[in-house]
């Protein structure tokens, strides 16, 4: 019964931490970062890349949502300009910056393989 009361610190060996054990204590941090990268960072980067491509290919007739929550239809878009003319109501047009467009709801661009399915 008296051995039960001995603190755990006295029961441990007197040797210091070895090189292998310090690597093993660092391994969970690496694993957590890897999980965070594949579950959070990588998908977000893919979404940003896709949105950037959609913004670059905006055409007349595309429905968009701005960062402020305004839904509209693209009326005029120039490739070299950062401004896009958007109709938010009948005969109400505003100029918005491409960077403030958060979502492209519908696109009038044809899919790349649209002609291949039509030939079959």
TrEMBL record:
**Biological process, per Gene Ontology:** protein transport
Domain of life according to the entry: Bacteria
| Membrane disposition | Single-pass membrane protein
TM ranges are: 20-40
Coiled-coil intervals, chain numbering: none
Question: Which SMART domains does the UniProt entry name for this protein?
Answer: YajC
Kindly state which keywords UniProt assigns to this record, in alphabetical order: Cell membrane, Membrane, Protein transport, Translocation, Transmembrane, Transmembrane helix, Transport
Any one Gene Ontology cellular component term annotated for this protein: plasma membrane
Q: Where in the cell is it found?
A: Cell membrane
Question: What does the similarity note say?
Answer: Belongs to the YajC family.
Give the record's subunit note.
Part of the SecDF-YidC-YajC translocase complex. The SecDF-YidC-YajC translocase forms a supercomplex with SecYEG, called the holo-translocon (HTL).
Describe the task this protein carries out: The SecYEG-SecDF-YajC-YidC holo-translocon (HTL) protein secretase/insertase is a supercomplex required for protein secretion, insertion of proteins into membranes, and assembly of membrane protein complexes. While the SecYEG complex is essential for assembly of a number of proteins and complexes, the SecDF-YajC-YidC subcomplex facilitates these functions.
What is this protein called in UniProt?
Sec translocon accessory complex subunit YajC
- Identify the species of origin: Acetobacter ascendens
């Amino acid at each position: 019964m008296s051995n039960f009361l001995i603190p755990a610190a006295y029961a441990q060996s007197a040797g210091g931490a070895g090189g292998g054990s310090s690597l093993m204590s660092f391994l969970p941090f690496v694993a957590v970062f890897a999980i965070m990268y594949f579950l959070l960072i990588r998908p977000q980067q893919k979404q940003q890349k896709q949105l950037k491509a959609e913004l670059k290919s905006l055409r007349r007739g595309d429905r968009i949502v701005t960062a402020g929550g305004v839904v509209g239809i693209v009326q005029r878009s120039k490739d070299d300009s950062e401004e896009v003319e958007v109709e938010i109501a009948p005969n109400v047009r505003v100029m918005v910056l491409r960077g403030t467009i958060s979502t492209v709801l519908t696109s009038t661009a044809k899919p790349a393989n649209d002609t291949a399915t039509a030939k079959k």
